[in-house]
Amino acid sequence: MVVVLDTNALMMPVECNVRLFEELERLLSAADPVVPESVLTELEKLADGNGEEGTAASVGRDLAERCSVVEADPDYADDAVLAVARRDSIDYAVTNDAPLRERLLDAGVPVISLRGQHKLAITQP
Known about the structure:
By secondary structure, the chain is α/β, with parallel strands linked by helices. It has a single domain, classed as 3-Layer(aba) Sandwich (Rossmann fold), CATH 3.40.50.1010. It is 50% helix and 20% strand. It is built from six helices and six strands; from the N terminus they run βααβααβαβαββ. It has helices spanning 7-15, 20-28, 37-47, 51-63, 77-87, 98-106; strands at residues 2-5, 32-36, 68-70, 92-94, 111-115, 119-123. The protein has a six-stranded mixed β-sheet, with helices on both faces. Helix 1 (7-15) crosses helix 4 (51-63) and helix 3 packs antiparallel against helix 4.
């Protein structure tokens, strides 16, 4: 199963105490994660900041090393996630961003997001 991850998905381990890759394995058995280049760019910018957001972005940047990087035309990370989900053989998108989740579901892409305190769940379009 190919899953595209957005910026906040990669920051969930720090911000929401979610074991991202363990949860994906629990839900999907085998997940092949991909991230658009613009997500990496956004993580780099956020990692330069201070506080929890900077730490979460730094951890997210490290976690992104476990993913395949894909090109996407839009420079804005959310738009890139949507573009990748539409054009590639993506089975799921992982985000905790409510507006992006709605855009993905409207485009017919199943979304994996936080349910409860530390668990992920699948929402079908």
